[in-house]
Prior knowledge:
Blueprint: H1 3-13, H2 30-40, E1 43-49, E2 52-58, E3 61-70, H3 72-82, H4 85-92, E4 97-105, E5 108-121, E6 124-135, H5 149-156, E7 162-167, H6 174-188, E8 192-197, H7 207-210, E9 214-219, H8 227-236, E10 241-244, H9 250-261, E11 265-270, H10 278-283, H11 288-301, E12 302-314, E13 319-320, H12 326-329, E14 339-340, E15 352-363, H13 366-394, E16 396-397, H14 399-408, H15 414-439
Parallel strand pairs: 7-11, 7-12, 8-9, 8-10, 10-11
Antiparallel strand pairs: 1-2, 1-6, 2-3, 4-5, 5-6, 12-15, 13-14, 15-16
Amino acid sequence: MSSSENEQKARFTGTQVPLQDLPSIVGPNVFENLLTVCRDHNASDVIFRSGSTVRARVNGTLQAVTKVEIDKESIERFIQESESLATVTNIGAGHPRSLAYVVSGERRRDRYRLQATSVNEGMADDGIRLVARPISSRPPRLDDLNLPPDLVEALTTNRNKGIILVTGETGSGKSTVLGAALDQKARNEALHITTVEDPIEFNLFYLNDETQSSVSQSGLNTHVRSFPDAIKGLMRDNPDVIMVGELRDQDTIRLAAEASRTGHLVYSTLHVNAAAAVIDRICVSFPDSERMAIAASIIDALRTVLNQELVPKLCSCATPYDRLDSIINDSGVDLDGIRQPAGCDACNHTGYSGRQPLMEYVVLRDDGRDALLRELMNGGMAGVTHLLSSLVKKHGLTKLESAKQAVETGKIAPDVFKSVLVETQAMDIIAGGANGQRND
């Protein structure tokens, strides 16, 4: 094998060189090659931005992948070949687009979710950004996610009606949890399960062969025009379970609440950073005159809220924690199991390998919903958020407790736990002040 062939192999196998040492990659399959090498490095996102070098997020940290900038024409050509010229035109006209993409190779078939958006490019106003996120063909089994037993029960045993929300930032594993929950639901009972997604994340068709359930999926802009149109149609199909990719607009929220009241169990996601903030986050998009009614409707339907964040996970090379930190020492954690990042060949000397979920959740019963409705009538939205925060502590798990468990078992670094602790203390002070003003 020639030296140039050796160099090409080193570029694309993703096993011989760190990402930041990769040379510029050129050729007709540049995007697929980059996606493959980044996936082999366990990258969670690959960012192609016109006029900039390609970057990838590995263990939660962005790093450069190429030494040369990628141009707008190359990104547009890739989108056109993957989708259509009309898609490129729509993106340029200010309409972001989510796409599904598959890289097929010898003995592998890798799936990606692509998000294309028109952006500013330096002095020009017509750049483009394409973010690719690897997704698995199948969701993991729910048992593999190591969720608390009461949360697993809440995600999978409620059949009659209600809304189950999985929340968090982009890339926090919301779709993974939902996919695993639907997989388990289909195995536990014979159900009619339907989804509408943007785009379809996990292909759940295999459940039709492996279970007694009937599962069908629709993709936005591929099978249906909008979430509201899809939900209207789905309700006429009499499904037991409806999964809506995201509660992103007023009509989708209204219809999801209506579906949950008419005998359907609705799963969905929301971009919010705390379980206690979901009601306020949903209602903020509505006019003031409608917020109380929408809040009451959502509270009446809400069954479970899970909020999740992914943080860097310590590599197995981590060493015992040997620093003195008064904040951590006074936090009540068991210091015996705490580890700190070290670095080895396996983790490319970063000290981290993969990501660890930190979660908070609340399981709402009838008495909890009744209390929230009373608080809504008496104290408004601020009172609802404060009470929901208390219910998280009483009928669920706080993010601080989740971080405490993770740091005590050597899964996350002390600094990550410390940041969660400080954030929680600050939020408690703010919430206490707001509640005091309300009581005055």
